[in-house]
Amino acid sequence: MLGYVIRRLAIAIPTLLLLIVLSFVLMHLAPGGPFTQERALPPQVLANLNAKYGLDDPLWRQIWNYVHGVVVHFDFGPSFVYPDRTVNQLIADGFPVTLTYGSLAFLAAVTVGVALGTLAAVRHNGWLDYLAVGVSIGAQVLPNFVMAPILVLVFTLWLRLLPGGGWSFSDPSFWIMPVVALSTSYMASIARITRSSMLEVLGSDHVRTARAKGMPEHRVVLHHALRPAMLPVISYLGPVFVSMITGSVVIDIYFSTGGIGKAFVDSALNRDYAVMMGITILVGALTILFNLLVDILYAWIDPKIRY
Amino acid sequence: MVIDPRKMQSLAARMAGDEVPGRSPWADARRRFRRNKAAMTGLAVLALVALFALSGNLFARWSHEELDFSVMGQVATAGQPSLANGHYFGTDDLGRDLFARTVQGTRISLLVGIVGAGIAVVAGTLFGAIAGYSGGRTDQVMMRTVDILMSIPYMFVLILLLVMFGRSMTMLFLGIGLISWLDMARIVRGQTLSLKNREFIEAARVIGVPAWRIIGRHIVPNLLGVVAVYATLLVPLMILTESFISFLGLGVQEPLTSWGALIAEGAGTMGYGTLWQLAFPLFFFVVTMFGFFFVGDGLRDALDPKDR
Question: Where is it mostly found (chain A) (predicted)?
C-alpha cells in the first residue's frame, strides 16, 4: 500500500512538470504578451519590463526559474498585470471561497445522491423509486450554468428570498445558490449510480444470508449492502471533485462570489501568465492528490483490491 | 379436422422459399432497442431537433444576423414571440430574431458535439486498440501518457488555448478533441485486452496476418458495440463542454452562436422580463440532452452482451 502511494506520488511529479512546460510553450507560441496594449509601449520600456519579469530569458531558463521558485520558496511569482500583487496573494484571496462552496457542494452531492439512490433501490419499483429516478433524470440535464440562471430567476427575482450574488463567510444565505447550482447534476448522477449498484448488491448472496438470519432490513441495507454498493460511486468521486473546481469558473462569474474561477478567467483575459499558471498548477496538484485519496478509499472499502 | 388448403399452400410456399434467416447479434440488438420506449422517444426527439437545425431556416423570416429596428430598444414589449412579425421565438436584446439564432445555435452545438465525439471515437479507438494489442512496454508507456493527460485540468487548459490563440471554431475543435479521446482510449484498451487472446485472433495470428490488419479487421469491428454506446454518451458531454465555454464567452464568435452562448445571453437579460430569450435555447438544450441520454442508455441495454 505504502509503495503504491509512493509510486503514485512519483507519477504526479512528471505530470506537474509537463503541465508547467506545456503552459510555458503555449505562452511562448501565443501571439501577444502581458504588456501588449492598444497603444504600443516604447521599445525601451517594453524591453525593461520583459527584463524585470525575466521574459527575455531563453525558454528553458524561464521554466527553470519558475520551477525553482515554486519548489524551493513555494512562490508562484508576481502578477504581471497587478504590480502590487503576487500570485500567492491572489490565490489566498480566492481559494477559501472556492473551497467553501466547493466542498459544501461536494458533500451535498454525495450525501443526498447516495441517500436518494439507496431509498430508490430499497423501494424498488415503488412510487419513491419512480420519483427518485424521475428527479435524477431531470436534474442530470441541468448543469451549473443552466441551474444558476434558473435559481436566480426563481429565488431572487420572483420569490426575493436569496441574494442574487456576492459572498460572505458569515452569512450562509449567500452560500445556498452556488452550492445548489454546482451540485445538482452530480447529485443526480450519484443517485443513479447508487441506485443501480445498490439493486445489484441487494440481490447478492450475502444480503440474502443476512436476511435469512432475521436481521432487520435497515441493518441489512446500512451494514451489509451500502459498503459494497459504494464502490462505483467512489470511482466517480474524482471527476465530481474536478468539476466542482472547474464549475467555480461559472459560479464565480454568475454569482460574483470572487473565488479562484474568477481570478483564472480574469487572468486569462488579461494574459496574466503567472496567475493563470499558478491556478492551473494548483488545480492540477489538487486533482492528483484527490484521485490518490479516492484510490486509497477504494482499497479501504474493497478488501479484494491489492496494489 | 378442417385444414384450410389455401393456408397450407401458402405455408408450403413459404417454407420452400429461402431458408429461415438466422438472427445476427446486431439484429437482436436492433430489436431490443426498438422495444425500449424511452430510447425510441429519445431517438424521435433527436430526429426532430436535427430536422429543426437543418430546415429551420426555411421557415425563418429573418436571418440570424439581421437587426429588426422596429423592436430595438423596446424588446421587452415589441420583441415578444409573435407569429405576426415573424419572430416566432421573439428577439434578443439587439433586435435579432431568436428563431433564426436558435437554428444557428443548434447547428453549431450539434456540429461541435458530433465532431468532438467523432475525434474521440477515431483517436481513442485507434490508440486504445494499439496499446491493448501491443501490450508490454508499449502499452505501459501509452497508458501512462493517458494517465498523465487525464490529471491535467482540461477545462483550464481549454480556456488557456482559446484565450491565447484566439477564439475560433478550429481551436475549439482542437481543444475539445485533445481531451475527449482519453476515456475512450481506456475503455477500448480494456476491451482489446479481453479480445486479443480469443481463438479467432489467435487463428489470424497463426496464418500470418500482420498486426495492423488484425487490429483493423478483427479487433476494431468487435469493439463497435462498446464504442457506439460510449460515443452516444460522449456527444452530450461535448455539447455540454462547448456550452460551458460559450457561456463564459469564449466559444464561437458572433454572428455565429451556440446554445451555451444563447443561454448566457438569456440569463443575462432575464432581469428585464425577456424570459423567452432564456426559455427557447434552454428548451432545445435540455431536450437534446434528454434525447442523447435515453438513446445512450437504450443502446447500452441493447448492445450489452451480459444482458442476454
Answer: membrane
